[in-house]
Predict the 3D structure of the following.
Amino acid sequence: MKIGLFGGSFDPIHNGHLITAMYLLETYELNKIIFIPCYISPHKLDKKYAPEEYRLNMILAAIKGIDFFEASDIEIKKKEISYTIDTLQELKKIYLNDDLYLIIGYDNLLVFDKWKDPDEIFKLAKVIALRRISSFQEANHEYFKKAIIANAPIIQISSSEIRERIKNGKTIKFLVPDSVADYIKANKLYL
């Protein structure tokens, strides 16, 4: 099987994440995509997240009934900084004979040489980098040439924008699935 691994804070997950995941599933003929919310991102150590169980529950609400999307709490359960290499090594034990596709943002690819064990990451998975803007720069390291650059639709929705809208009493209709909006409201998140 071909399995996509889509990590991030998902604080909250939004329609841009879902549209991008669907595009990647179809374009690269993946059998499924697993959304993996981080506990703490090593690239965002100063960031405060919504509690991890809420972020996981929002993902579960967003993908409910979609057979080819799953969620994993593998990084949340560790209760420590989430390094991609550690997650990949754990998942490779489960998906021993499957091809793993690590989905990252283009901005992460630009600094991939600073990641923990980047060579090992490429041994365990193919890396797909998502363009987030229409014009982009190239990185000057070997990993840039090894990665697959996905020309996925560029969707201008951000989790930080959604949090700001909620804080300011504005609607998030059409930015997140209704099930996620309902969950946010019920749990009084981002106020």
Notes: The longest helix spans residues 15-27. The mean pLDDT is 93. Residues 88 and 94 are 10 Å apart (CA to CA). DSSP finds nine helices and six strands in the chain.
